[in-house]
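At your convenience, could you comment on the folded chain following this short note?
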Amino acid sequence: QVHLVESGGGLVQAGGSLTLSCAASGSIFRIISMGWYRQAPGKQRELVATITSGHSTDYADNVKGRFTISRSNAENMVYLQMNSMKPEDTGVYYCTTRTYSDPKFWDDYWGQGTQVTVSS
């Protein structure tokens, strides 16, 4: 089993910045990718950004140029630097990883989520 713990959420004014962190632990053989999703009230969970073990990144169109995802392979951590934040960035942000827990088995794992609120 792989466990993810997010931190860094909170309240920020529009135009401000926040950095989210996520630490993966447990039965980790090899991490394939890590990423962030978010869910606003009344909406479906949506992709924010992902990063592979080779540091290839992918972003949702509505965060490109404002958010930056990065990771530390050695520490099994992923970060999300959020700049120029907008009220529509409000939501619960979930850390996720696709990880091999042994040489043959991989699965997707999710954190509990951290609330981000952007005030106008």
